[in-house]
From TrEMBL:
SUPFAM superfamilies: Ribulose-phoshate binding barrel. Its cofactor is a divalent metal cation; Zn(2+); Fe(2+); Co(2+). Pathway: Carbohydrate degradation. It is an enzyme of class 5 (isomerase). The lineage of its organism: Bacteria, Bacillati, Bacillota, Clostridia, Thermosediminibacterales. This is Ribulose-phosphate 3-epimerase. The keyword Cell inner membrane does not apply.
Length: 216
């Protein structure tokens, strides 16, 4: 069954702990935490102090998605804050292999994210080292955007590559995911669905999570 990682980018930051409890009780598998610096993407969100304050408030693993320039400068801070998975963008660093292996050697699961127009070929020499690949199905920076249909083809292509090279890698998809398009995204090869608005703007987050997990 596919896993669901609610994105707290769409949560009410005035009562973040309660918002996390909603999705924890609703059957979420991971907590997706988007970190934006206002440079790599146009928006600014939260940093290590907020993540650290949430540690211990939930049993959900912290799936930390770094949308920041020069992520290597901040990796230790996010590890210390309590990240369980750290995903960096292939577009954000010139030494991806070094960074991924640094994260892995620190005992954290490394992920690599690709923006919509970034080709899968950028992962060619890193597939033996990563835990997860995050396909951005919107241009990153803001929640509430529409899923880019062409990304279904990208997910299918990635699934074929993974099955040939390293079947243990998980495919996570983030951006514009809802109950309507989830079946096609899962069929294409997604293992983890990140959803923000679809979950947090719903009157019943647990119901949405269940529908996403059982979509077919």
């Amino acid at each position: 069954m596919v896993k669901v990682a609610p994105s707290i980018l769409s949560a009410d930051f005035c009562c973040l702990s309660e918002e996390i409890k909603k999705v924890e009780n609703g059957g979420a598998d991971l907590l997706h935490i988007d970190v934006m610096d206002g440079h790599f993407v146009p928006n600014i969100t939260l940093g290590p102090p907020v993540i650290s304050s949430l540690k211990g408030k939930t049993y959900l693993p912290f799936d930390v998605h770094l949308m920041i320039e020069n992520p290597e400068k901040h990796i230790d801070d996010f590890i210390k804050a309590g990240a369980d998975i750290i995903t960096v963008h292939v577009e954000s660093t010139v030494h991806l292999n070094r960074l991924v292996n640094y994260i892995k050697n620190k005992g954290i699961k490394p992920g690599v994210a690709l923006n919509p127009s970034t080709p899968l070929s950028s992962l060619q020499y890193i597939l033996d080292d990563i835990y997860m690949i995050l396909i951005m199905s919107v241009n990153p920076g803001f929640g509430g955007q529409k899923f880019i249909p062409k990304m279904l083809e990208k997910i299918r292509d990635l699934k074929r590559v993974i099955l040939q090279e390293n079947p243990e890698i998980l495919i996570e998809v983030d951006g514009g995911i809802n109950e309507e398009n989830a079946p096609d995204i899962i069929k294409a090869g997604a293992d983890i669905l990140v959803a923000g608005s679809a979950i947090y703007l719903s009157s019943n987050p647990g119901d949405v999570i269940e529908k996403l997990k059982t979509a077919h």
